[in-house]
Structure formats: C-alpha cells, structure tokens
Amino acid sequence: ILDEADSMTSAAQQALRRTMEMYSHSTRFCLACNISTKIIEAIQSRAAILRYSRLSQEQVLTCLLRVCRAEDIAYTETGLEAILFTAEGDMRHALNNLQASFHLTKESSAATSNDDEKETGGMITQEVVYKVCDQPHPQVVATIIESCRCGKTRVAVQTMKSLCSLGYATTDIIGTLFKVVKAHLHLPEALKLEFLREIGFTHMRIADGVNSSLQLYGLVARLSALPTAESVAAASKQ
C-alpha cells in the first residue's frame, strides 16, 4: 500500500510501473492519491480506479460525538456545526480542528482555573473553532450576502473591507462565500445560481494569481447589481 502516490515524480512512477509488471503475479499494489491526474497513464491503465466521495456531515458528526464522549470533551451544537463547516467532509480535518480547539480551550481554562480544573479543558464553541481554523465567520459572510441581495453595495463593501483588514486570505473569504451561498435557505434557486456563478468566476481569477482584495470588492458590486430575488423568481417561472 503506497499512500500519497501523486507526490511521486514521473521518473519514480516509471520505476514503480516496472516493479508492478515484474511482480504482478504474486503481489497486489494499492496506490492512494488525492489527484489521480498526477499518476502516469502507464500505471492508471494497469489499475482499477476507485473514487471515493467526501464523507457526509452525518458520518463526520457521528465520529466527532464518539470522540467527545470518549475524551470527555464539553461542546456546544454550534461548535460541532462549525467543525463540520470547516472540515468540508474531510474526517482528518475535522479531528484535527477538534483537537486544536480543545487544546485552545484547555489553555484558556488553565489560565483562569485552579489545578483541579486544568485537565478538563473548556467548551468547544463556534467562536473557538473559527479562531483556531482562522476562517471568516459564516455569520459575517451571510451579512454580506444579505446586503448584496438587498442592493446595499456600500454596506456589503464595508463589511468585506473589515474582513480583509482582519488578515483573512482572499481564497478563504471566497471559499466561505461559496459555502454560505450554497447552504443559504432563503435565496431563490435562480438567484442562488447567479450568485454562485459570479463567485465561481472570481474564485477562478484568484486561483490564477490575481488575488487582490479588489477582486472581492468587484464581486460584491456585481452581486449587488444582480436583479432582485422577486424579479429573478418571476423570470424563471416564465
């Protein structure tokens, strides 16, 4: 079993291909990777490719609850929801974020508690999780979306500026924007698709290296200029 096979160089993969050919009669090779396109065609053609999707939130939550009970970790529902939001279906990220959040609360409680309470740690809350993960708070991002929805461009831009001034990377902000819009319950489907379309184009520009905060301000302006929810819904019915 070879993990992270996509990090191997092409020369190393060619050598591995030869080894697989020589010992295929007695050995079964299992290669694990994140990006299958980085595996050379010679190996891909000799293997059965199995693709695994992200875990569902229910599956991740079940594991988190089991860990919290086993380790006697205090938590809030919103705290676990924040971990699910930041993990994006990755169990490893979820457990790492849970551990980091617990250690932060433990250090905070140790500074203000007596020796008997130092070992218990504090509470896993929404604020602690987003502080540890260093990601924009979804509630703040949701206010930007709501301002854009109502055509309040200045308010949306000011909120976006405050996020940028806190030092968040443009990739983190645009990623949180995408997730918040996708999970938004009160946006009409047609308007949600238009929002996601504009966010996707901006994400593409940022990924290409144009990661200035002006990209985010321009995105806010374009979202605010979109038709209102009522007009989009009426147009979709027609």
From TrEMBL:
A Gene Ontology annotation in the biological process aspect, one of them, is:
DNA-templated DNA replication
Q: Which InterPro entries match?
A: DNA_pol3_clamp-load_cplx_C, DNA_Rep/Repair_Clamp_Loader, P-loop_NTPase, Rep_factorC_C, RFC_lid
Domain Replication factor C C-terminal, by residue range, is 136-222
Identify the domain of life: Eukaryota
Q: Does the keyword Cell membrane apply?
A: no
Presence of keyword ATP-binding: yes
User: Which is a Gene Ontology cellular component entry for this protein?
Assistant: nucleus
Keywords from the UniProt entry:
ATP-binding, DNA replication, Nucleotide-binding
Q: Name one GO molecular function term.
A: DNA clamp loader activity
PANTHER family hit by this protein: REPLICATION FACTOR C / DNA POLYMERASE III GAMMA-TAU SUBUNIT, REPLICATION FACTOR C SUBUNIT 2
Q: What is this protein called?
A: Replication factor C C-terminal domain-containing protein
The organism that produces this protein has a lineage beginning with: Eukaryota, Sar, Stramenopiles, Ochrophyta, Bacillariophyta
